Amino acid sequence: MIARRVTQLVLLFTIAALAARPSAPADPPAAPNGGPAQVTIDNFTFKPATITVPAGTTVTWTNRDDMPHTVVADDRSFRSAALDTDESFAHTFNAPGTYPYFCSIHSSMVGKVIVRKR
Fold first, then answer.
1. What is the Cα–Cα distance from 106 to 44, expressed in whole angstroms?
2. Which CATH number fits domain 37-116: 3.40.50.150, 2.60.120.200, 3.30.1490.20, 2.60.40.420?
3. Are 4 and 28 in contact (CB under 8 A)?
4. What single DSSP character describes residue 48?
5. Burial level of 54, CB count in 10 A (0-12/13-18/19+)?
6. Under a CB-based contact definition with an 8 Å cutoff, are residues 31 and 93 in contact?
7. Rounded distance, CA 63 to CA 11, Å?
8. Which among 117, 111, 77 is positioned nearest to 97, based on CA atoms?
9. pLDDT tens, 58-94?
10. Cβ distance 101 to 72 under 8 Å?
11. Using the 8-state DSSP alphabet, how is residue 74 labeled?
């Protein structure tokens, strides 16, 4: 009898905890219409980690860290030189698709550009 009551309480708390969790955003951050698409490299992360842009958009990455970083597509379709503090790299995305990328110096740093049709 006690075991059954404990099981019911655990189930109740589990349901309450799941209901209280914030939901994930429906879409990743998008570049403003007609505006520049910016990714900041700071504290060993790409911010935002995922950005959604329309085809034809130029995305610019700017390094705000004190360490050099790179921006390299997983498929090597684009690649920056090592970017020192306050240096930038830009790439224009013409074709819709998903473009994962990383820092070749710090491989745990990853990001993604999602390109949608205009």
1. 8
2. 2.60.40.420
3. no
4. S
5. middle
6. no
7. 47
8. 117
9. 999 999 999 999 999 999 999 999 999 999 999 999 9
10. yes
11. T
